[in-house]
Amino acid sequence: MTKRVAVITGGIGGLGTAICKQLAKDGRQVIAADLGSRQERLAAFREETRAFDGSIVFAPADVSKFDDCAHLIGHIADKYGSVDIIVNAAGITRDTSLKKMSEAQWADLMHVNLDGVFNMCRNSVAGMTERGFGRIVNISSVNGQTGQFGQTNYSAAKAGMHGFTMALAREVAKKGVTVNSISPGYCRTEMVMKVPEDIRAQIVAQIPVGRLGEPFEIARTVGFLTADDAGFITGANIPVNGGYFMSF
Question: Is the distance from CB of 107 to CB of 58 less than 8 angstroms?
Fold first, then answer.
């Protein structure tokens, strides 16, 4: 059987790398899409994924640009086959209180975190529905559910991702395509580990399981949602946050 093709945006980041490894273990041909300018991180990513022997490859793309995403999907289709799985994990932060936030801090974040989801899905969903199979997973955030001081832009984008998820899920449900989101809590990623230690300790104190999450715990949830036999789960948001925020 031909391997299903999976594209992970933000694929060389902390969560992205873990997701790439998980899907490669699941038998997918994985393409990590990210900015080609991140040379130091890219070299580390290639070293971390060397053992996967071609099951994980890198492709440069700026998800904030519609044409970049169109080119990426076309290039992958030509080289590896049609895209079956998309994981939208690309994201940036531009934290500051709203009264200090510049228009650029708002717009730059939205272009990557929310427009990027549109750009990737718009360029691939027609092919998925035509073939009768697709799995889309949008990596949202617990802060899209709870809000966070200094993150009106980030929280709005992450909440918007799930609104997008539910609407698209309804559009493609009868075509064999599922669309879900995952809302990670605070995980041991480079971004979180840059938070001052005393602030991190305050965060951990609010997490019922008493620790930060690990990237592989998000990745295994992606693996679950993108499985071939996960066709009855769509429009859902899966919280993976150690109990930091609970709801139903």
Answer: no
Q: Which domains does the chain have, with CATH numbers?
A: 5-240 (3.40.50.720)
Segment 95-127, tens digit of pLDDT = 999 999 999 999 999 999 999 999 999 999 999
Ranges of H-type helices in the chain: 14-25, 39-48, 66-79, 103-113, 115-122, 125-131, 143-146, 152-172, 190-193, 197-205, 215-225
Extract the tokens encoding 114: 């929310």
Please state the pTM of the whole predicted model.
Answer: 0.96
Q: How many other CB atoms are found less than 10 A from the CB of residue 69?
A: 25
Catalytic annotation on 244? no
In degrees to the nearest 10, what's the CA dihedral of 209, 91, 125, 167? 60
Selected catalytic residue, list 80, 154, 186, 244: 154
Are 20 and 226 spatial neighbours (Cβ–Cβ below 8 Å)? no
SS3 of residue 184 by DSSP: strand
Quickly count: other Cβ atoms within 10 Å of residue 212's Cβ.
18
Give the span between the Cα atoms of 117 and 103, in whole angstroms. 21
